Amino acid sequence: EVAGPAATTAGTTWPRAGLTTIRFANSHAVYALTWYGLALMVLGAGWFVVRYERRQASQAGH
């Protein structure tokens, strides 16, 4: 006796294998631009924080 997907009977029509097809759009350029943009924003925020901290430290020294 066979079990699993190979076990079919003459009257069984569903579920049929192979009918579900999934296609993903190839948006590599959009993903790359998104991640590079996020990386630039993180660098910009880091630069801003460092600049702010240095200004605060120099003003506290006066």
What this model shows, in words?
The chain has one helix and no strands. By secondary structure, it is mostly helical. It is rod-shaped.
At a glance:
The protein is mainly α and 62 residues long. It is built from 1 helix and no strands.
Uncertain runs are none
User: Over the alpha carbons, how many angstroms does the gyration radius reach?
Assistant: 29 Å
Helix segment tally: 1
| Strand residue content | under 5%
Number of strands: 0
Please tell me what the overall shape is: rod-shaped
Please trace the helix and strand order, writing H or E for each element.
H
What's the helix and strand layout?
Layout: H1 28-60
Which descriptors would you attach to this protein?
1 helix, mainly alpha, 62 residues
